[in-house]
Amino acid sequence: MAITVTEKAARHVLRNLEKRGKGLGLRLGVRTTGCSGLAYQLEYVDEAAAEDVMFESSGVKIFVDPKSLAYLDGTELDYAREGLNEGFKFQNPNVKDECGCGESFRV
Fold first, then answer.
1. Beta-strand runs (E) in 1-107
2. What residues have CB less than 8 Å from 6, skipping those under 6 apart?
3. Do the beta carbons of residue 30 and residue 90 sit within 8 Å?
4. By C-alpha distance, which of 100, 68, 75 is closest to 6?
5. Per-residue pLDDT for 19 more than 60?
6. What is the per-residue pLDDT for 106?
7. CA 99, CA 103: separation in Å to the nearest integer?
8. What does the DSSP 8-state code read for residue 74?
9. How confident is the model at residue 10 (pLDDT cuts 50, 70, 90)?
C-alpha cells in the first residue's frame, strides 16, 4: 500500500506548510458526494490521529484514514497549472469512472 507525491506537488505542499508556520503534512481522504459517489478531500495536518496511516513521499508526510485508504491505495498526487487554473491532480488506479465535471469518482 502506498500513496505518492510528485516533486511538483511536494514543492507546493512544503511551501504552503512553511507559509502556515505549522503542520505535519497533508491529509488525503475521500467523502461521499457528487454524481459519481466519492470525492477527494485534502487538508493540512497539524496533529495526526491515532488511526492514521502515514506515508512519506518526496519529503511530504501524507496521512490517510483507514477507510479512505481502500479507495486511495496506489494514488499519485500531482500539482498542475493549466492556463489560469491550477490545483492537485489525482492519478488513482482504483477509479472506474468519473463524473463529467471531474469533481467525483467511482471505484
1. 4-5, 25-33, 37-45, 53-57, 60-64, 76-82, 85-91, 97-98, 105-106
2. 58, 76, 77, 78, 79
3. no
4. 75
5. yes
6. 67
7. 7
8. T
9. very high
Is there a contact between 18 and 55 (Cβ–Cβ < 8 Å)? Answer: no
User: Which residue in 41, 42, 45 sits closest to 24, CA to CA?
Assistant: 45
Question: Comparing 97 with 52, which gets the higher pLDDT?
Answer: 52
**pLDDT confidence of residue 104:** 62
- Which of the four pLDDT bands, split at 50, 70 and 90, describes residue 75? very high
The C-alpha cell at 28 is: 488525503
Q: Model's pTM, two decimal places?
A: 0.85
Cell numbers at residue 92, please?
488513482
Cell of 14: 512544503
Q: Report d(CA 99, CA 105) in Å as an integer.
A: 6
- For residue 2, give the H/E element and its range: none
Cα 84 from Cα 37, distance rounded (Å): 28
Q: How many residues does the chain have?
A: 107
The pLDDT assigned to 103 comes to 62
